[in-house]
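Subject: Interface between my chains keeps coming out wrong

I've been trying for a while to get a sensible model of this assembly. When I model each chain on its own everything looks fine, but I need the whole thing in one frame so I can look at the contacts. Pasting all components below, labels as-is. Any help appreciated, I'm running out of ideas.
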Amino acid sequence: MFYEYKHLKWNSHWCKRCMICVEMCPRHALALIDDAIVELDNCNADGLCERFCPDLAIEVIHGNSKEPTK
Amino acid sequence: MFKDLLKLERFPTTWCPGCGLGMIMTQLAKVMDELHLDHTNTTIISGIGCTGRIAGYFKLDGVHTLHGRTLPVAEAIKFVRPELNVIVASGDGDLASIGGNHLIHVARRNTNITVLCNDNDVYGLTGGQAGPTTPVGTITSSTPGGCKYEPIDLQNLIKVGTQYHYAKTTVYHQAHLRKCIRESMLWQGFSFVNITGQCIENNGKRLGFKSAYEMLVHYRNTYKKAPDGAETLGDNEIGIIRRE
Amino acid sequence: MRRLVQGNEAMFFGAVRAGAEFFAGYPITPSSEILMLAAEHANRHPKFKFVQSEDEISAGNAIMGASLAGAKSFTATSGPGFSLMQEAIGYGHQAEIPTVIINVQRVAPGTGMPTMPAQQDIMQSRFGSSGDYYPFVFYPNSVAECYKYTMVSFNAAEESESPVVLLSDAYLGHLNEVVDFHCIKLPRAVRRKRAPLGTGQRLFTGLVHDEQGRPRTADAETCKRWHVRVSDLHTKVSNRYIDFEFQPNLSSDTLIISYGIVSRVLQPLSSQFALFRPIRMFPLLTDEIRRCANDYRNIVVMEANDGQYATIIESVLKRDVHRVPLFGGRINLASARAGLRKALGRMIE
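Reply #2:
Try treating it as a single job with all components included. I did that and got this:
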């Protein structure tokens, strides 16, 4: 159910493959490959995917986030 | 931790891929966490429609009412238990069409509840029919020739009393959405947050959007912050207007 | 202390006596006195909450919310308002919410005759909402009974965890009789079992749901289990509410079944006929009706409607009954005699 990549953790059970994270990522660091959301090489853990996922299905692994303060 | 307020054991949520409701749920949970709201001091009421399912995901006592009847139920709860924080989460059709009469009067009575309106321009759950907030000319599943009527003016409906608190925001503008929810919850009186959110499956695709992300971009490009101190929000403006 | 009390007034005070703390309603003849009394009471007693709703739909839903929040709640209306509340009543059954709906009936259908008594909501009180549900419905016939059966209705609501309908009519509601509330023997008020909102993590929904409150909208087994559990519960509770009055008359071959204000008007006929009066209209007093009807060749059902209860009695007794409908609010002994003469084909004293 949980896939851990270098910076990101993805929940294949909660994810609905809506593609918001893939399309939103400014560095195009995510892709849908073989029905899985996969972290590619240039992820910088900015947390945009985590913040916009409607299903809490992707998150930056604890401590790695560079989320800007409010 | 905001996730402690959610019934994660019931995930994945029932909503379509890309639906804006998951975003509203998350931002609401974040604000509740900030304000230390939990099942001992808060209850959530939701109506019929996709938004109606939101109550079932919160670790709170919640009421899933009949279509259009969140406001009479929420108001009665507040009368009986004034110490409880009462949050209503419902859709544009539930609140402004079938529930429209209650909206007028509960706003007029200025009952101290916070209403979050998921405004996706249509009746999503039943297949994307036109609703009270559908813009003129929109093709929907019940207006194949384009919607004939002007949408209801929610802002002016809420401004009916001497005191009011009306916020307009979108699911794209997350920090602003949290601000609207937070300030509405802290307001002593009736407060209404009109949240534009995407229904990609039963509205967006028919309008030509290829994905939920495209709808979010549309919200980013269309909506602008109203100037500080504005007393009225213009079309496509996000902001909060209030009068004590 | 003995004083002159109106039927509507007695119902209001019965509600207060039962511990009611919330009233939502909309003015409608002939029930408006109850709303006005509630408004006055709320003015003097801060713990009692009153709201004049914008319409009956709002009132019917408000009492559901108030009940979930922990208050014993009620509303009062008449036929047209009762129709508007039907969806909320069904919701209350599905979500298992105790509350009381008073319906002071008037001539129908439609706007009907706002000031004339009728009993035209018998079927509506049993079947008015969408779906299969098993409501408790009570119908007193005196001011003292208006007081007592309001308490009984609140108790039945708490025990069955469902909305209870308390019927009255324009005549009974506005009838003034001398009563002493202190002399009316009341059952003890049943206390609320379920914890109110703001204490747990439950979901109360109108969708078919499981025991944890999770919607189960495609599960026939869960749906069937709910029906079995709730109808069993209501049957069990009904054994504690066997409310009727039977005046046998073995010198007569005819039993007249009537209820509410009609039964009151028929009292002088007890020397000529046996009289049966259900006070608990639903669930049906099947065993009692069958037992009492056994000794009588003719069964007459006299009511201020076009045979609503008669239809039900026929299915209970599995035999035809004579129907005497009283229309247009004309509920008096003369019309009763005329109706009986026509039904039985003989003169009535």
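Reply #3:
Confirming on my end. Chain C is about 40% helix and 20% strand.
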